[in-house]
Amino acid sequence: MTQIRRRSLLAGASGMLAVPALAQGVDFAGKTIEWVIPFAEGGGSDVWARFMAPYLAKNLPGRPTVIIRNAPGGGSITGTNDFYQRARNDGSTFIGTSGSTQFPFLLGDRRVRYDYANMPPVLVSPTGGVVYLPTRFGVANASELGKLRDQELVYGSQGATSLDLVPMLAFHLLGLKVRHVFGMRGRGEGRLALERGEATIDYQTSSAFLTQVRPLIEARTVVPLFSWGVLDEAGNVARDPTFPELPHFVEAYEMMHGRRPSGVEFNAYLAFFGSGFAAQKPAMLPRGTSPAIVAAYRQAFVQAVADPELQARKGEVLGEYRQAVGGNIQRLYEVATTIDADARSWVREYLTTNHNVRF
Amino acid sequence: MMDVILGALFELLTPERMMFMMLGVSVGLVIGVLPGLGGIAGLSLLLPFIYGMDPTSALAMLIGLVAVIPTSDTFSSILMGIPGSSASQATVLDGFPLAQKGEGARALSAAFFASMIGGFFGAIVLTASVLAARPIILLFGSAELFMLTLFGLSTVAALSGGNLAKGVASACLGLAFGMIGAAPATGEYRMDFDTLYLSDGVPLVIVGLGIFALPELFNLLRGGGAIAQHNPMGTGWIQGVKDVLKNPWLVLRCSGIGALIGAIPGIGGSVVDWIAYSHAMQTTKDTSQFGKGEIRGVIAPESANNATQGGALLPTLLFGIPGSGSMAIFLAGMILIGLQPGPAMADRNLDVTYTIIWSLAIANFVGTLLCIALAPGIAKLTTIRYALIAPFMIMVISFAAFQATRSVYDLMALFAVGILGLFLRRFGWSRPAFLIGFVLSLGAERYLYQAVQFSGWEFVTRPVALVILALTALSLWAGLRRSQSNVNTEGAADESRATSMLPQVAFTGLLLVFFGWVILEGLKNSYLAALMPVVVGSLGAAAVLLVLVFQARGATTAGTTNFDQEASATDNGPWPFVGWALGFLALTLLVGFFAALAMFFVAFLRVVARCGWVQTLLLTAAACGFLLILASSLNLIFPGGLLQEHYDLPWPLR
Questions:
Q1: Interchain CB contact of B328 with A (< 8 Å)
Q2: Domain termination site, one of A257, A274, A291
Q3: Selection from A198, A253, A199, A197 nearest residue A225 by Cα
Q4: For a pLDDT cut of 70, what percent of chain B falls above it?
Q5: Which of A209, A342, A351, B60 has the smallest number of CB atoms closer than 10 Å to its CB?
C-alpha cells in the first residue's frame, strides 16, 4: 500500500520543474547515504569524496550520515556498471566518477554498461595541470615552443586510453614529436622519469605541480610551458585560476601556429580535455531519481561548497577551481560526458593506427 | 638538526597523541593477527576517522598501525602456518615447523626481537637519509629497476626446492599468472577471457592466500587434531632473543635489504621477505635445516619486513610516490589532514617527517612489547582442535580475499588459486618461486620495455645496473651452490618418493599444456605485448618438458623430480575439505556471502567438528558478530548471490 502511494507521489513530483523549493518534501533524517567511489581507498577520487562527504552530510535535509563505499576493479568500469544497473534511486546512494570512468564511455569501450546521459549530475569538480620540460631545451616559455619542432621528446605515459590521452592529443595538435613510453603507474612515476632525465616532457596536476615541480622551477631545472586551462560558463577554454600567469593550451597553440586550433582533431581534444580536466569528477544520482531528490542534492552541494569551513580547508583537495553546482552544472556535465560522433571515430582511428588499441 | 629531531619527539609525547598512537597500534595488532589482512585493510579502517584530527595525532595513529603489522602478522605465520600478511610469507617456511616441534616460543621471540631491531633500523635509515635520499632514489631508473627485478628472480635458484627445473617452471608459472590483464607496454588485455575481473590481473592478496593459506588449511584439517599436540610454546623465550643476538650481521644485512628495497619505488615490499630468506639460505653453511625449522629462516624475513616500512616512507614522503599499497592509503591520509608530501618534507616540513620517524620507532617498540605480552594467550589457539579453528580461518581468508575488488569473483579466484596451490604443494613445485615470479612479472616486463625505450639496449651498461647485475650473478651462484644440498621448501623429500608416477606425470603434462596456451595467447598480441608471454611460456615449457622426461622414466630414475606428498597417504587426501570450501562458494553464489557463511558454520561445526548444538550456535554467532563489526566499520556490502539478484534485502544480507 505504502509502496503504491510513494510511487504515485514520485510520478506526480517528476511532472514538476526541478527547483530548490521542490526539495522540501525530502528528508534523510536517521538515514545512511552511500557515496559509491568505483576506485580503491587512497586514490584521488577517494580523497575527493572523503573530503566532501562531511559537508554534504551537513547540508542534506535531515543531516544523514554520508559514508564512502569503494567498489574498485576493472579500471572503475566494474563499479560504475554495477551502480548503473542496480542502485536504488531513492536518494540513498549516488556515485562519483572520474576521467578514467568517462574515457571508456566516450571512446565506446564495449565493456561499458553505463550511460551518463541518464544520470542526473549534482556536482562537477574541475581540476587542472601544467605542462613543463627541462631547461636544457632552451625554451623559456610557450612563445618559444616552435624551437621544439624538430626535436624528439619523450613522455612517460600511463597508457594510450588513460587520462594521458589528453597530453597525447595536445602534443599531436601542437605538432610536437613526442614518443610515448607507456606503463607508468601514476603521474608521479612520469615526473620521476623526467627528473632522472629519461623523459623529457611531462605534466602534473595542480597540487602535485605546486609541491613537487615548483622547487624544480626555482632550481632552474625545468620551465613551465602552459596549463590545460579551465572552461568558463560559455564553454570556452580560459586560464587556470591557480596559474593565472601561464598561458593555457589554446593560447600556447596560437603562439606556436599563429591561429586558433579548429577541426575534428580539436573537437576530439576538447571532449577529452573537458572530461579529463575541466569537468573531471562528476557526482551523479542513479537514473530515474525523482526531481525532488535531485533538487535536494543540488541544493546541499550548493551550500556545502559555500561552507566557509570547506573554503578554508579545500587547498590540497579541490584547489582554486570553481565547483560546478546548482544551475551551473548541466553545461559542464555535458562537456565531461559527451563527444560528437566524428570526433569519436577520429580518436578511435588515431589510437588504433598509432598505438594498436583494439576497440 | 638535533633540535628539530628532539622537538618532534616532545611534540609527540603528549598523552592525547600517545593515546592515538596506541589506538593505531591496537588496531594494527588485531588486523595483523588476522590472516591475509594487512596494512591496506587496517588503514582503510582508520581513514574515515582522521578527518579533522590534529595532524600529529593522525600521523601517530596511522604510523602506529603501519609499524606494528609486520610484527603482529608473525603470529599466524608461525602458529598457524598461514601468512598473517604478504610481508610474512617467508616466515611460515621455518616458523611453522618450529611451532609444530614445540618451539613456538623461541620462534616467536626471535621473530619479535628481530622485527623490533628491523623497525629501529628502518627508523634510523629514515633519519639519516631523509636529507640525502632524493639523489639516491633518482639513481634508480627503469634500467636499474629491471635489474632489480632480475635480482629478485635470481632468488628462485635458492628457493626452487629439491629440483631446479621444477623451481624454474614454478617461477615461470608465476610469471605467466602475473601477466594476466593489461600489458604494460600496450594496454592489450592478455589471458583475461574477455572478463572485466581479470582485466586488472589477479590480486596479489588472493594469490598469496590461495597459494599458501588454503593448502595449509586443508592439510591441517586432515590431521584431525590440534596444530601443536603438546606444549605449543615451549620455554624458549630467552633462547629466541639469544638466537637473534647470535646472528647480528644477518639481522643488519636483512634490515638493510628491507630498507633499501622498500625505498626504491616500483619494486614494492611484497618480495622483501623472500629475498631476505634466500639471502639467509645463501649465507648459511649448513642449509639442511631450512624448511624444517631453521631459526635463521625466521630471523631474516622478520628483520627485513619491519625495516621495509621505514624505507618505503622515503619515496612516499619525498616524492609523493607510494612504495606499496598501504603507503598509497597513508598518502591519502596525509592529504586529508592537509599535508602534501614533496621536497618540503626534507625542508620546511622536516618536523613532520621526524614526527613520523619517532612514531615509527616508538610504535615498533610498543608493538613488540604488546606482542610478547599477548603471545601466551594467542598461542593457546594451537592447542584447540583444528576443526574448530578452520571455519574461522576460512571466514577470515575469504573476507580478506574479497577486500580486493569486493566481488564474488574474488572468492572464485581464491579457491581456484587454492586448488592450484594444493597441487603445487603436493607435487613439490616451489610455491615461493611461483609467488616471486607472480609479484615481479609485470615489473620485469614494464621496466625492460621502458629501459629499452628510454636508453636503448645500452641500458645494461649503466653503472648502477652493472652493480645490480653483478649482485644477481652472485646470488645465482650462491643459490645454485646450495640447491645441490637438497633444500626443500615443500616439506621432507624422503617421505615423498612415490612409486606410482601417474598423478605427477598427469599434473606435469597439464602444466605443459598451460605453457603452450600461454604462448598461443601471447602470440595474439602485438610484438611488445607478445614478447614476454612467449619467452616465459617457452622457458616454462622447456623446464616442464625436462621434468616430464625424468618423470616418465619411472619412479627411481626420476630422482629429485619424483615428489608426491600423497605417496603414502591412507586417507582421502584434502579433497573432502576442498569439497566443503567449494560448497561454501556455491552457497555464496546462491544466497550471498553472509547467509552462506552462517550456514557453512553450522554445517561444518555439526558434521566435521561434531559439536553440540549449543557450541555450534555460539561459535556461529560469535563469527557472524565479529564479521558484522568488521564489515560495518569498513562500510562493506558482502558479495551477493542469485538471491540478491532478485530481491533487495537489508544489510548484511544485501
A1: yes
A2: A274
A3: A253
A4: 96
A5: A342
Same domain, A236 and A287: no
CB atoms within 10 A of CB A301: 25
Residues B52-92: tens digit of each pLDDT: 789 999 999 999 999 999 999 999 999 988 888 888 889 99
My answer on whether A212 and A153 are in the same domain is: yes
Please provide the distance, in angstroms rounded to a whole number, between the alpha carbons at the two ends of chain A: 48
Residues of chain A neighbouring B199 (CB-CB closer than 8 A) = 74-75, 111
Co-location of A133 and A270 in the same domain: yes
Among residues A222, A254, A274, the one where a domain terminates is A274
Residues 6+ apart with CB under 8 A from B415: B210, B214, B581, B582, B585
Q: Which domain holds residue A143?
A: 129-274
Tell me what ipTM this predicted complex has: 0.89
DSSP character string of A194-217: HHTTS-SBEEEEHHHIIIIIHHHH
Interface probe, candidates A78, A93, A357, chain B, greatest B C-beta count within 10 A: A78
Kindly state the average pLDDT of the residues A240-262.
96
**Per-residue confidence (pLDDT) for residue B197, from 0 to 100:** 93
Compare CB distances from B200 to A75, A81, A154 and report the shortest one's residue. A75
Instruction: Check CB contact of B188 with chain A, cutoff 8 Å.
Output: yes
Q: Tell me, what's the pLDDT at A12?
A: 37
Kindly tell me if the per-residue pLDDT of B488 is higher than 80. Answer: no
Q: Which of residues 437-456 of B touch A (CB under 8 A)?
A: 446, 449-450, 453-455
Upstream peptide bond of B652 is cis (omega within 30 degrees of 0): yes
On chain A, the residues whose CB falls within 8 A of the CB of B53 are none
Collapsing DSSP to helix, strand or coil, A176 comes out as coil
Q: Is A134 inside any structural domain?
A: yes
Which one of A166-175, B127-136, B459-468, B470-479 scores highest in mean pLDDT?
A: A166-175
B434-441 mean pLDDT: 93
Start-end of H helices in B160-247 = 164-178, 196-199, 204-208, 214-223, 237-246
Does residue A240 register a pLDDT over 90? Answer: yes
Contact residues on chain A for B648, CB-CB shorter than 8 A: 88
Q: Nearest-CA distance from B587 to chain A in Å? A: 22
Name the residue among B281, B270, B211 with its Cα closest to residue B430: B211
Tell me the C-alpha distance between A37 and B633, whole Å.
17
pLDDT in tens, B241-276: 999 999 999 999 999 999 998 888 777 677 899 999
Segment A188-195 shows an average pLDDT of 94
B69's CB contacts (< 8 A; 6+ apart) are B28, B31, B32, B38, B39, B42, B85, B87, B326
